Amino acid sequence: MENSWSWEQKTLVSELIQGMELTKQLRQNLGAKSSAETREFLLQKILSSYEKALLILKWSGPMGQRLTQSLTQGVTSSLPGSPISADESPRSDDFDRGVKDQHEPKDLSKKRKVLPRWTDLVRVNSENGLEGPHDDGCSWRKYGQKDILGAKYPRSYYRCTFRNTQSCLATKQVQRSDDDPSVFEVTYRGKHTCSQGSNSVQPPPSPEKQEQKPNNQNYVPQLQYVEQVSVNSPTNLKVNNEDLKHKEMMAPPFSFHSSTYGCATGGDNFSALVLENETFLGSFSQSFLSPATPESNYYMTSPCRMNNLAGIHDVQCSKSELTEIISANTSATNSPIPDLDFSLDHVQIDTNFPFDTPGFFP
DNA sequence: TTGATTTGACCACT
DNA sequence: AGTGGTCAAATCAA
Fold this sequence. Notes:
By secondary structure, the protein is of the alpha+beta class. It contains nine helices and nine strands. Helix 1 packs antiparallel against helix 2. The structure holds a DNA duplex.
């Protein structure tokens, strides 16, 4: 936790405050001649805010509180699916295993690696033969390929070329999407420790090689989050909401300026997700979206947030790594990432409310 | 010749 | 027992 409040706490407070503000608005509307739709809209937003706050409370709990448990119980009933379970890649259980492995190292000679598994998942759209701006800054060597049950396409396994020379244990898996063969799902595992982790530039592979060596731009060394990147979109940070709709439903649609809501390191713009489905955003706070740019529908979130969404607490969230992520993700295009500044300054805080009371937060 | 890829087999995990 | 992840020998390519 940095400063006095963690990201979760700040977000939780903002959600509660927002709920309060919306309630005030609703009260005013009740006295005025507002339409039933307006009231219903406000009511929906209030419920959404409190629902998100409850989710945060759950996610902010002890490590043992698995996201999957949260997702299948109580307040999440209206949010089907999970950013974790909705995807076939290992995540929270991997994380648990990784933590366990860290504390209980087993036979290192065994095939199943004992390195912590911080799973990242990046989807790269390589349509039109574009070489995905998928520079993760490290050279990869393929060490295996496997047909996966229920998947049309085999999964390829890569490890860092410098695995032996620099003991870089980073690995990644690449699998072509069943739904959209032009989309590759890249799951990163482990942390890059090689010196070239963020510097090397690989020559663009042939389109066919793209599957085997998805190239460039998505260096996500250890943070676990689910992200979908379309290389061809105006911004490479565009989210194909079709595939993520279930996941996104679980992702509280917060957007904020990272200086206010960034992860523990703060100060950097971490990543941006661009949603195409406006209806999805409709239920979100207007505080998070600029009404002046309805077609944009940008919202930003922090990988740390995604960490939590993926059932992982911000265990490893160094500033340098996050900076790398952002620089990698934003270097392909000069697409401006709207600065959706959302801060507590925008809302009134009842100074009497003991947010900082010990025990208020779990 | 050297490094990368392929692929069958082994092993861990559930 | 089924599945996924990794190993390592064989093969390929520069």
